[in-house]
Amino acid sequence: MQVLRSKRAGFCMGVALALSKLDDLVSKGGHVATFGPIIHNPFVLTEYAMKGVRCFKTVQDVKDSLEPFYAFSETLGTHGSPVAEEKKPFMNVLVRAHGIPRETESFLRGLSHVLLNDATCPRVKDAQNAINDATKAMPLESGGMGKAKTLLLYGDVNHPEVDGLVSYACGRYIVSSDIEKIVSYAQKHDSEHMVLAAQTTQDRPRFDILKERLLASACNVQVLETICDATRLRQEEALELASKAQAMVVIGGKESGNTKRLAEIVFSQNIPTVLVENAEELHREFFKGIKVVGVTAGASTPKCLVDEAEKILSSW
Ligand code: SF4
């Protein structure tokens, strides 16, 4: 089979940065953990687990893991003295590329024995800050209502990045990946000042439809452009490949939102599409009669997994 491989398949800038920060911490030794999975790829997560990197899901998990640190500090005695502080054991906790809620971050920063390292992707950070600035209350004298604006967030409910983004909203917020729901909320609350933003990995054409619907209505909505270009360009390139190939392979973690969306977008072109985590999940029967196959991968997929899939597909 001829394989058309996406040039943008694999780690995006935010994931590459987060992993290089984690590698740096691991190379220095000591206790290292991430808050939430560093990325949504089981292959990468297993590799780090084998290097001793722990993954905490909740703040309670972090607190529980610190018990031995507290006990050890007590054995040093003289709590708070410069000598004891110097010998104090600590755990490096890395914030993942998706970011975390603002309250969680301040809580973790306040924990003794924790050194918080931030690997939030710069684009996610920009989206958090933009939401914070845009939803602040406008003073009455400058034409505002003296009330914080409502955030309309186009994104997946319960996605870790979304949990982080909404924590930066200064007022009320709603989250949905359903255009109709957001439009209907905005129309029912047309006297409110609102801010529309999106999870960075959402599909841009759909967000544009939502934006146009809201701007065409009489709603008072300010739009923030928070969708990441890396996602848009990867999606556009996948569509281009799909127009040239007879089947498509999307490689990435099945828990990865951007990988699943990539597969959905390709599949919507009525082309046989398969989503796999690695080359072992490829089945030859699926490609019967196919001469040209396109290969793309999510933002959290390591290059070696794409290389492997390409090798197998070209040998068929
Ligand atoms: S997809 Fe974009 S926003 Fe998300 S981690 Fe990658 S570079 Fe950052």
Q: What features would you describe in this structure?
A:
With 316 residues, the protein is α/β, with parallel strands linked by helices. It has three domains: 2-10 and 230-315, 4-hydroxy-3-methylbut-2-enyl diphosphate reductase, catalytic domain (Cobalt-precorrin-4 Transmethylase, domain 1), CATH 3.40.1010.20; 13-121, 3-Layer(aba) Sandwich (Rossmann fold), CATH 3.40.50; 123-227, 4-hydroxy-3-methylbut-2-enyl diphosphate reductase, catalytic domain (Cobalt-precorrin-4 Transmethylase, domain 1, 3-Layer(aba) Sandwich), CATH 3.40.1010.20. It has 13 helices and twelve strands. It has a four-stranded parallel β-sheet, with helices on both faces. A four-stranded parallel β-sheet has the order 3-2-4-5, with helices on both faces. Strand 2 (31-35), helix 2 (42-50) and strand 3 (54-56) form a beta-alpha-beta unit. Helix 7 packs parallel to helix 8 (160-166) and helix 9 runs parallel beside helix 10 (204-216). The mean pLDDT is 90. The site of iron/sulfur cluster (SF4) has 14 residues, from helix 1, helix 7 and helix 11.
Short note summarizing the structure:
The chain is built from 13 helices and 12 strands.
